[in-house]
Amino acid sequence: MVSITEGKHERFFIDFAWEKDGHIRSYRLGLEEVFEGKYLDTLFVPLQGQAFLLVGCGKEKELGLLEVREILAAAASKCREMKIRECSVDISRFAEALGKDAVLQGVLGLELGSYTYSFTGKEEDTACSFQLERISDMEDMEGLIAEAEELVKGIRFARDTVNTPGNHLRPMDFDRCITGFVKDVEIEAQTFVYGQLRAMGMEALYGIGGSSEYPPCLLILRYRGNPESDEIYGLIGKGVTCDTGGYCLKGSKSMAGIKGDMAGAAAVAGAMHAIAAGKLKVNVTACLPLCENRISQSAFLPGDVITGYGGKTIEILNTDAEGRLVLSDAVSYGIKDEKITKILDIATLTGAVWSALGYTIAGSMSDDDHFYGLFEKGLVHSTEKYLRFPFGREHRKMIKSDVADVKNVGADCCGSITAGLFIREFCEGKPWIHLDIAGTAWCDTPSFAFESKGATGAGVTSLYYMMKEAQNEG
Fold first, then answer.
1. Which of 119, 155, 192, 390 counts the most CB atoms within 10 A of its CB?
2. Which is it for the CA torsion 388, 390, 391, 392, positive or negative?
3. Is 235 in contact with 271 (CB distance < 8 Å)?
């Protein structure tokens, strides 16, 4: 919990210092002998009747919004470790340097730095209540903190669901989890269950999901913040709650992560809640195909040809390339039935993107520079990193099939690009953005202080800030 205060807490506070900062000497305690202010270093200083935590900020010229979030997360993590329950934090120097965004990033850092996941829910509550000092004179601080807290809710939801063991989050469980999460905001939810998917002709989604005894579904979330506009943004999130790879079975080293193949849908749900809570003046529809991908008598085989909801025929050459299949039906439904005008899909789609970019940079693609420009503007505030992949006619040829309109895998190279282009085949020429978060949605070894082992909540803030930028489109 984060609130605003007028002065320092009487018992414990957090202070910050640049590398070799004269501020360290101002305490006249000889701290400069043991603390240099190096990035993310901390020093607990007990005084008579009071104590404080000194956090190193590194070189002042290297400070950015990501660093603010990480510095505050390091402070929160230390408070949790020391079981501090209440303290004040002076983040005014960050606000002076970087403006209001620094306050929001500071709140995100404080809240996420103490995040832990417990399946049993029985872990001791060691959360600290933080009071921000010396910012009360800044305009609309209460609103800014409220916005940050809503983003925290979305990120925590995404982390919690991705971290949940797969046998406790089947497709319909995930559906109920999401619909329960968005109940407190103005979002309309509708679920199409297995029988309806078959009747509608969603062969890609019900075919993949039909491989499991736990049935698939398609969850639709509708938010209408600007009913006078015909513009409807579509957020399409992959929600495969268990991905064995089907008959193209994953290797043993990949099996441990098969429960997290629904991080795209989790990110969309988290962002949708924040969008609605913030009452953004945009219209957004989320289409979330939720299913499992298993081996069974009814599972697809390599070489099968199916017809997607949009009418295109698809040659399936790799059953472990199932995410793009279920997304294609969701995209087609969004265009045909929900009348979405711009499309963004997000998924843990390819191992190739992780091989290329690692754990801190996600891959992206787009066929519309203006639409992608909104996304890039949002990244300034979200602090996430995406690398936009180029593509051309030669890449589109790679997914051309001899027996169908398109095949679900390309050549041995360019795997991330051809996966994205497969989804684009179903967008009917509408502006499109593709996000592949296969590398950034999960971390075994955290790269940043605001991460913990497991799910990261990747995508939530970027989707939210893109929609915030879209408000200015009219």
1. 155
2. positive
3. yes
